[in-house]
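ESCALATION

Customer reports they have been waiting on this structure for their group meeting. Please prioritize. Original submission:
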Amino acid sequence: MPAVLSEEEIMDATSGMVGWEVVDGKLHKEYLFDTFNAAFGFMTRAAMEIEKANHHPEWLNVYNRLTIDLTTHDAGGITSNDINLARVLDSLLA
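Update from on-call: job pushed to the front of the queue and completed.
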């Protein structure tokens, strides 16, 4: 189990990651897509990567918007697993 990261470690790890911030103790980002189909397509691609990592986000989809919150529940906070998953999710849009 990875250790919970300090605020400084989280800031360092996310410094080059656009749109990610800590909200209510979770790594948080909102993605906006052109359509519901685009948002759902992203979620489908993401689900395959999420399963590979065996690290599941809290997410909410409303039409063309996807809100994602990442935390490692077993560790009680944000860990390297969350940072890694955030990077994978962003890479799916590249």
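Sent to customer with the following note: The chain has one domain: 7-91.
Escalation resolved.
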